[in-house]
Design a protein that fits this description.
four-stranded antiparallel sheet; seven-stranded mixed sheet
């Protein structure tokens, strides 16, 4: 059982930055897909970013390209989401998830492990 814990959320003004962290209870290097998802009130959960850990490839949703970046530090068992130029529409609960190589990374239901989520609120 892998435990994921997010941190770094908070309330900021539009245009500011935040860095979210997702710390795993074990080595994340072997987890093929690690992703950030977000869910705003009354909306469906959306995938924000994915790190394909085996090959170091990343995915970013069109809505965050150029503003967000996903990265990891294997030594710290931690994945990050650097968020810049935040907008009010980025307001949501952000959760990290991990899954094996067999999953469809765009399907939330296929991830095996989830963190509890961290709130990000952006005021305009």
């Amino acid at each position: 059982q892998v435990h994921l814990v997010e941190s770094g959320g908070g309330s900021v003004q539009a245009g500011e930055s935040l860095r979210l962290s997702c710390t795993a209870s074990e080595n994340i290097a072997g987890r093929h897909y690690m992703s950030w998802w977000r869910q705003a009130p009354g909306k469906e959960r959306d995938r924000v970013a994915t790190l394909y850990t085996d090959v170091g490839v990343t995915y970013l949703a069109d809505s965050v390209k150029g503003r967000f970046a996903i990265s990891r530090d294997n030594a710290k068992n931690t994945m990050y989401l650097q968020m810049k130029s935040l907008k009010s529409e980025d307001t949501a609960i952000y959760s990290c998830a991990a899954g094996g190589s067999w999953i469809r990374p765009d399907r939330a239901t296929e991830y095996s492990y989830w963190g509890q989520g961290t709130q990000v609120t952006v005021s305009s």
